């Protein structure tokens, strides 16, 4: 099967958004944990930021990443005519 220019553009946009979201995931998961002691000097709602990110903050970011990716890919699928769901 020969890939058309449209397929290549679709794939590049998919890779770009995936790379950005993986970078955000990496920062939230590893960088925030690495700097937890420094983050604890910031207090949000009575809890140190390091504790907040470990207990709840990172989970919220993960859900937002999933939500954004699904929304973005649905729009991209419709834009390139490969949408598999019901027509809205």
From TrEMBL:
<dbReference type="InterPro" id="IPR019886">
    <property type="entry name" value="Na_symporter_ssu"/>
</dbReference>
<keyword id="KW-1133">Transmembrane helix</keyword>
<keyword id="KW-0812">Transmembrane</keyword>
<feature type="transmembrane region" description="Helical">
    <location>
        <begin position="42"/>
        <end position="70"/>
    </location>
</feature>
<protein>
    <submittedName>
        <fullName>DUF4212 domain-containing protein</fullName>
    </submittedName>
</protein>
<keyword id="KW-0472">Membrane</keyword>
<feature type="domain" description="Sodium symporter small subunit">
    <location>
        <begin position="9"/>
        <end position="83"/>
    </location>
</feature>
<dbReference type="Pfam" id="PF13937">
    <property type="entry name" value="DUF4212"/>
</dbReference>
<feature type="transmembrane region" description="Helical">
    <location>
        <begin position="15"/>
        <end position="36"/>
    </location>
</feature>
